[in-house]
Amino acid sequence: MRPLLRLIALLCLCLGYALPAQAAVTITFWSHELGNSFPHAFFTLRGIPDAGGAPVDANAGFTAKSVSPALLMGPVPGKLDIARPGYVASSDAQFSVVMSDTQYNAVLRLVDAWSEGKPDSVYRLSDHNCVTFVKEAARIVGLTGLDQPKLMKKPRSYLKAVGAANAGRVIPVGVHGKDYLASLPPISPSQATAANTTAVVATAGPVPAH
Predict the structure, then answer these.
(1) What pLDDT, in 10s, does the model give residues 66-75?
(2) Is 50 exceeded by the pLDDT of residue 50?
């Protein structure tokens, strides 16, 4: 199986909460208060592509492969970070955008390009970090006001600034993750059953470390 397909399969198995009832994939941008857990900015993908197919329920962020003083000295190896459900629930959902299938596929290519071992997987604290990763996803879905040099190390402030710059083009959320996830309606009954099965598999299986 090609690396991109393996990555998509991993993303689709990592979360087990319900999907919104919609015939498109929605990208939601999240922040997490600075601390020892990563990533501090990431996005979730939920929904069903307009072209049809399996429901999508995934997230992706970007962080350094290891946290050490080397981060302050220059580039270090980076990696995709797939957040556990509990981490997502303890984060803050800032805003959402309903994507076209073309945009959705472009976001998947972004995820693949930043995966470990690829040229874009190099982590630089100042200009190629978790905020840069979500910035590129925001660019793909057509948002503007993305260049905020003073906020590239401030995930929440950065996403709030981007959301404000795109009023009318984004769906404001601005609530704690646990409340946001609880508000999401389930998909159709048959798919909800499948999602519950996936949740059991995802909980039992290995989850990437943070």
Answers:
(1) 565 655 555 7
(2) yes
- Residue 203: which residues within 8 A CB-CB, separation 6 or more? 16
For the chain, give the mean pLDDT: 78
Angle between the N-to-C axes of helices 189-204 and 3-13, in degrees from 0 to 180, rounded to the nearest 10: 100
Contact between 99 and 85 (Cβ < 8 Å): no
Closest CA to 45 of 67, 71, 14, 70: 14
| pLDDT, position 175 | 95
Identify which of 23, 28, 44 has the alpha carbon closest to the alpha carbon of residue 96: 28
Cβ atoms of residues 82 and 8 within 8 Å: no
- The neighbouring-strand residues paired with 46 are 26, 57
Pick from 189, 181, 197: which is nearest to 83 by CA?
A: 181
